[in-house]
Fold:
Amino acid sequence: MPIFTRSDSTMQKANVLHEENMTKATNARWIYISLPLMLLFTVSMIDKSNINILFAERQFLQDLAISDNVIKGTLSSVFLITYALGQFFWGFVVDRIGAFKSGMIGIAIWGIAMIIGGVATSVTALLWSRALLGVGEGVLYPIALTLTAKWFPQQEQGKAQSFWFTGNAIGPVIGIPAIALIAASFGWRESYFALAIISFICLAIFIFMIRNKPSEHYATNAAEVNYIEKGQGVKKTANIDTGSVKSVLTSPLFWILTTVYACVSIGFFGFSTFLPSYLTEAKGIDFVNSAMINAAGYALAIIVQLVCGYLSDRWMKRAAFVAVASVIIIGCFVGFLYTTNTTVVILLTIILLSVLYMPAPITMTMLHEVASSQVMGRISGTFGCVSYLVAAAGPMVVGFFSTTTGSFTGGFMALISFIVLSLLLCVYLMKKGY
Structure:
């Protein structure tokens, strides 16, 4: 029987450690987490914007007796309200039962909502469809932020969130023409049913690919799990108990980040809602070309987000990126308001649309330095709920000031004040090392 000495045992342990270090880490987090999350945000963006495209479809308006803008506004607003409140509700659910189970329930709900929309014969039924869609899609940010916190080390969270957030830009690029084509060729109800089928396909993909933690996933190895765990942790917020919901919610830093996100969201929703009307009425650009300008802006937004996500991880100066974006947004706003050159207007509009998207994922990345993965569901739910309730005021702000002053300039200048506030808060965050 062989006899092992102390040195033999030490050498065996060293060999085991050497083999573990030599094992190449898998990249399951990028394939099985980022990709399906991006797909979910892409489809969700198409689902929520489906009705905005159908507002221009005559048969849709006739079938449901939609005759004025008050009804259209109500159908849009009810979604934003339930979407915001849904994020708060789902935040608690995600922390309780996990992102995997929460995601399955939420995606199923929004698939059912699209079916209800497809069979609707009245505005009331359509209102229920929109409200249920908001509740279902409200699960997205709590599960996405929770999964990012658990699946990605701190030095990759900017890239990861920018990657899945691009779904919000990809959605309009492919969704606007696709929905219009389906509605024109087959009917508006068929556009709802098609999106319902796609939503349930997303549910199947989610079930197959997503797991709550790296250690639970069939595609990860020990090297990847170890790499992720070593890169996690909060570095800049030693004065905050990041694992306590109460501590995070009473932290000024959380509310600064929430305010920044709300300000850039007000700018986005306020601008994007009135952009087609502004280009057509104030700048003399026809409807078709204005749609092309929108598509170009969203396409460029994909590139801007990915590049900035990568660089923010490389330099770890996330607040600086949001500050620079705020400066560009303000400059573009002022520029196209006071120029009469159509080419300049088009270029500034495309740049503005692309940059308006970028601050959101970068701001959410800073949220990981305030809250741990154990409470991220509740924290992100509160963060999203407050931000989107405030952001819902964006279109109303533009509408009110535009009506009061008699031009779009007054409404857009009101939006600029929120972006200025975002800039000032980001300068403060930069001084704090964020």
